Predict the 3D structure of the following.
Amino acid sequence: MVNENIGGWKRYDADMKFYEKIRDEILTVAEQAGVSARQQLRLELGVEEILVNVFSYAYDDFGYIWLKTSVEGDCFRLEVADHGRPFDPLARDYRHAENVPLADRQPGGLGIFLVKKNFKSVVYCYEEMFGGMANHLTMLLQMK
Amino acid sequence: MIREFAQKQYEGSNGWIVWAVVGRIDSVTADAALAFGKDVVGNNAKTVLDMTELDYISSAGLRVLLIIQKQAAKEGKEFIIAGASGMVSSVLEDSGLSTLFTMRDSMDGLK
């Protein structure tokens, strides 16, 4: 079993203007690690849903986001940490019930659901990291 | 692998106006897609969203579709989706939203 830390933790400003750059960096690493084209689309979905959530809601003002990539067996591991307000995205299902009519549907809540559906595992904890209490999300994606 | 975002509108067959989107509908492109789609639906009785060249959609993109669908319903317009495949099709299905839209497998008879 290969466990390889291929990225190390990297810190970025938690700002939407850096989203595409961060996304492309992660996808490049994933491709080089052997993540299939089909799975790269699922990885991008996870990257987008989690990062945009942090950029939009974690901080009132300025803040950082930390990202780390690695390979764990046949999985690609993406970890995301921030020092924003405590938020467990896995705590509840934010989707609507299936019988909610179109007129009453609001678009929120689907992002995390889609991440959980597409990744092998998603784990959240709130712990001390990088000098402060951090939301720490770990996502495992099958590489093929 | 994922095509560059682009969108266009043209006259299809049988009175359908085609709104074709290429590449991604995501947090970066959603505002542009929403503005374009609202304009197309607002100005036409029958609109088909051609997804045959759409490679990727996220929850931001689903939000766009939901808003457009609500607008069409409110205005008494027809709005259908055609040609979704791969990851886009999976996301529509997984989200449960595919049951809210009229979906066609291809653009046959529409363009």
